[in-house]
Specification:
Layout: H1 3-24, H2 32-44, H3 46-65, H4 71-95, H5 103-128, H6 136-164, H7 175-180, H8 189-196, H9 202-214, H10 233-238, H11 255-261, H12 280-291, H13 307-314, H14 335-343, E1 346-350, E2 358-362, H15 371-379, E3 384-388, E4 410-412, E5 434-436, H16 447-450, E6 458-460, H17 468-477, E7 482-484
Parallel strand pairs: 2-3, 3-4, 4-5, 5-6, 6-7
Antiparallel strand pairs: 1-2
The structure holds heme C.
Length: about 500
C-alpha cells in the first residue's frame, strides 16, 4: 500500500477503536480513563462550531459578492468542521457517562451533536459538486446549511444548559427582560406560596417545591438517577438503589439529609457538583419535615415550627423579641430535684431571676457525670440550659444524657476526651447556641452532626482535628454561626456557678 493510503485509513481506525472501547464500558461504572477522555469534549466542541459557522459565513459572502476563490477554503472548512464534529461526538459519548447530566437535555444535545457531524459531511459532499444557483444541488446544499446552523445553535445552547444549568443565561437578566420571557423573579417559589396560604401543607407547599426546583430534574419517574425518584410520595418512600432515603422523625439518619449536608465538593453531595447547594432555609425546611415525621398530608398549622423554621416563616432576621428557650413556657424545677443534683456533686444555679432555666457543672473534674449525677440531671432535664463539662474526665458513654436535655443552649466540652461518635447525642439539640470543643480530638466526622444544630451561633474548634475543609463545609451549613479557630481563650468566663 502507498503511504498516502495509510493516512486515509488512519482516521477511520481511530474512530472505530474509540467507538469499540466505548461499547465495552459499563456506563453505570465508568473507569476514570473514560471520564478523562470525556472531559475533552468541552474543549474540542468549540472547533467544529467555529469552523462550520465560518464556512457558512464565507459561503454567504461568496454568493453575495460572487467571490469564486472562497470555494476551496469553504470545502476545507466543511471537511475540518465535520472531522472536528466527529471528534466532539466521540468525546461526548464518553462524557455522558459522568453522573449528573439531565437526561432530557442530554437526549437532545446528543442527537443534535450526532446530527451536526452527519450534516457537515453531507454539506461537504454536496459542496464538492459545485452546484450553481437554480440547480437542485444548490438548493439541497442551501437547505443542509440552514438545518446545520439551527442544529449548531440549539445543540450548543443545550450544551451550555447541561454544563451551567438552565437558568444560566437568565440568572442576572434585568427583570424587565425576564418578564418578557415569562420568568418570575429568581426568588424561591415556596416563600411566595407561604405568604398566601393559610392552610398550607408541609409537604406539598414547602417540601415538594424545593425538591421540584432542586432535585427532580435528575430524580423523576422517567429519569431515576441513583434509582431514586423524588417527584411523588411513593418514590420518596421507595428510596433509591442503596435503600430508603428517609427515616421519618430522624433527619440525622436520613440519606436525603446526609447528601444535602455533605460538603458541596464531595462527590456524594446533592444536588451534585456544579449545581447550587440548597440554601440554609431550604435545608432547614426539609430537615424539619423529616423530624416532624415526614408526613405527606400534615398541615403547617398542625406542626410545631422549630425556631429556625419560625424565623423562615416570619421572613425575619433574629429580632429583639424573646427567642430560643426564653420564648417557651417552662415550669421551674422542683427544689428537691435541685437539691438532689447538688447532693450528687453538681453545681446548680439559676440562669436569672424569674427564669426556670439552670446552669450546671460538675463539682469535681475527676468524677463528672457519674450514674447518680445522670439520674439527677434527669429530674431537671427541662430546665438545664447551660452545662459545663469542660476540663473534666467525663466519659463518652455518659454523654448520651445530652440528648435528653431538650433546652440546652450552652455546652462546654473543651479539654475532654469527647469523640466524634459522642456528638451524635447533640444532633437533636435544637436550641444549642454555644458549643465549646476546644482541645478535643473531634474531627471532620463530627461535621455531619454539628451541621444539624439549627441554632448554633458560636462554635469553638480551636485545637481539634477538624480540617479547614471541615470548617468550610460547616460554615456553609451554618452561615450564621461564628466558628472560632484560635484567637480566644476558651475560658469559663460566663460561668458563675459555684459549689453549694
Ligand atoms: C444533576 C442531577 C441531580 C440532581 C439535581 C440531584 N441529584 Fe441526587 N443523584 C444524582 C445521581 C447521578 C445520583 C447517583 C450517584 C450517587 O449516588 O451519588 C444521585 C443519588 C442520590 C441519592 C442516593 C440514592 C441511592 O439510594 O443511591 C440521594 C438520596 C439523592 N440523590 C438525593 C438528592 C436530593 C435530595 C436532591 C435535591 C436536593 C438531588 N439528589 C438532586 C443526580 C442528581
Amino acid at each position: 500500500m502507498k503511504k498516502s493510503t495509510y493516512w486515509r485509513i488512519a482516521p477511520f481506525v481511530i474512530v472505530g477503536l474509540a467507538l469499540l472501547f466505548r461499547i465495552f464500558i459499563n456506563p453505570a461504572d465508568p473507569p476514570n480513563a473514560a471520564l478523562f477522555i470525556g472531559r475533552f469534549h468541552s474543549m474540542i466542541v468549540h472547533f467544529p462550531i467555529g469552523l462550520l459557522l465560518l464556512a457558512v459565513l464565507l459561503e454567504v459572502l461568496a454568493r453575495a459578492f460572487r467571490i469564486e476563490r472562497f470555494s476551496s477554503t469553504i470545502k476545507l472548512l466543511l471537511l475540518a468542521g465535520a472531522a472536528g464534529a466527529v471528534a466532539a461526538v466521540l468525546a461526548g459519548l464518553y462524557l455522558e457517562m459522568a453522573p449528573g447530566y439531565e437526561a432530557d437535555t442530554l437526549f437532545w444535545h446528543k442527537r443534535l451533536g450526532i446530527g451536526i457531524a452527519i450534516l457537515s459531511f453531507i454539506a461537504y459532499g454536496v459542496r464538492l459538486l459545485d452546484g450553481q444557483p437554480g440547480t437542485t444541488v444548490y438548493r439541497v446544499y442551501a437547505g443542509v446549511l440552514v438545518v446545520l446552523c439551527s442544529f449548531l445553535m440549539v445543540g450548543g445552547h443545550l450544551g451550555s444548559v447541561l454544563t451551567h444549568g438552565s437558568g444560566y443565561m437568565t440568572r442576572y437578566m434585568p427583570q424587565t427582560f425576564r418578564s418578557m420571557l415569562g420568568l418570575g423573579s429568581p426568588a424561591q417559589g415556596w416563600a411566595v406560596r407561604m405568604a398566601t396560604a393559610e392552610d398550607a401543607e408541609v409537604y406539598s407547599d414547602l417540601v415538594q417545591p424545593i425538591l421540584d426546583s432542586r432535585c427532580i430534574s435528575c430524580h423523576n419517574a422517567g429519569q431515576q438517577r441513583g434509582q431514586l425518584a423524588l417527584d411523588t410520595p411513593e418514590g420518596i418512600e421507595k428510596g433509591g438503589g442503596d435503600g430508603p432515603v428517609l427515616v421519618a422523625g430522624r433527619s440525622s439518619e436520613s440519606e436525603i439529609m446526609r447528601r444535602i449536608l455533605l460538603p458541596p465538593d464531595h462527590e456524594g453531595h446533592m444536588p451534585p457538583e456544579g449545581k447550587d447547594p440548597l440554601t440554609v432555609a431550604e435545608a432547614a425546611l426539609i430537615r424539619w419535615w423529616i423530624d416532624e415525621g415526614a408526613s405527606f398530608d400534615q398541615k403547617v398549622a398542625e406542626v410545631t415550627p422549630s425556631p429556625l423554621v419560625e424565623q423562615i416563616f416570619a421572613g425575619l432576621e433574629l429580632s429583639e423579641r424573646e427567642t430560643g428557650i426564653f420564648a417557651l413556657e417552662i415550669a421551674a424545677a422542683d427544689s428537691t430535684a435541685i437539691q438532689a443534683a447538688r447532693a450528687a456533686g453538681m453545681a446548680v444555679t439559676s440562669l436569672g431571676e424569674n427564669e426556670p432555666f439552670l446552669q450546671v457543672r460538675c463539682a469535681s473534674a475527676s468524677d463528672c457525670l457519674n450514674v447518680e449525677q445522670v439520674a439527677a440531671l434527669g429530674l431537671i432535664a427541662s430546665q438545664v440550659a447551660w452545662l459545663n463539662l469542660g476540663r473534666t474526665e467525663v466519659a463518652d458513654s455518659a454523654l448520651a444524657v445530652l440528648a435528653t436535655l431538650p433546652h440546652l443552649t450552652r455546652l462546654h466540652l473543651e479539654s475532654t476526651s469527647v469523640s466524634d461518635e459522642a456528638l451524635v447525642h447533640l444532633s437533636e439539640l435544637q436550641y444549642l447556641e454555644y458549643l465549646n470543643l476546644y482541645d478535643t480530638s473531634v474531627s471532620d466526622s463530627s461535621v455531619q452532626y454539628l451541621s444539624m444544630l439549627p441554632s448554633l451561633q458560636s462554635l469553638f474548634l480551636w485545637e481539634t482535628d477538624v480540617t479547614s475543609e471541615g470548617v468550610e463545609s460547616l460554615q456553609r451549613a451554618l452561615p450564621d454561626a461564628e466558628i472560632v479557630l484560635g484567637w480566644t481563650l476558651p475560658s469559663v468566663d460566663e460561668d458563675t456557678t459555684s459549689a453549694p
